Amino acid sequence: MQGKTTSWLRRAGLAGGIALALFAAQIAAQIAEAAAETVKLGVMGGAEEEIAEVAKTVAAGKGLTVELITFSDYNIPNAALDAGDLDANAFQHKPYLEAQIAARGYKIVPIGFTIVEPMGLYSRKIKSVGDLKPGSSIGIPNDPSNGGRALNLLAANGLIKLAPGKGLSPSILDIAENPKALKLVELEAAQLPRALEDFDAAIINTDYAVNSGLTPSKDALIQEPREGNPYGNFIAAREKDKDRPALKTLVDSFQSKEVRDFLETRFKGAILPAW
Asked: For residues 26 and 132, what is the distance between their CA atoms, to the nearest angstrom?
């Protein structure tokens, strides 16, 4: 009887060991599958693509493959994300996303901050804002969020006064006072660096400024503050995917020491970490 019991215990132990081995193999396979996952990330070409390349390398060390899809027009990455052509994008700030959601109904949410790029006023014709004459022309972005951002920069430096309560996204119609009768001309943000010669000055997003050879710390006549800037960029994803583990890994890769060090050495204060 004792021999039969011992034999049964051995068989039960063997079966349990096999089951445990199969379970472990299943978990290992799931981990390997997760590690082999690829995320398609939309970014703007130029400086932001350089930053994303560093994050991509960090992500590879965490077992995540990042495929970068580059754009030159702010209007496309959210449409591509909404359509499922991207898993995430990293190019925008909250006022821009809110304006896009209001206009197009996207179900897109921020999942982690990346960088902040203080916007500035640039000129080929004047050396300071004090040189602006009555009737001077100033180019500003034509999308509501970046256009409002430009107006707030002008207001913060006393060049115009905005009606109260307009927040981060005022429009030209909200200008209450314009003592120098400045002519504000709205143009697509990506076109402003190339059109700079056509204006007395233009307010240009930092990524476009850097990509066109401008150095914000040296060339900007006025600039948004670096600290407490409400226009921090972030990684965005479809709302249904916001808790996807691979996207958490992507955020962690952007918010890494490697990316922080790259920003400091490559851009020297023009582009800063927003996390």
From this structure: 69
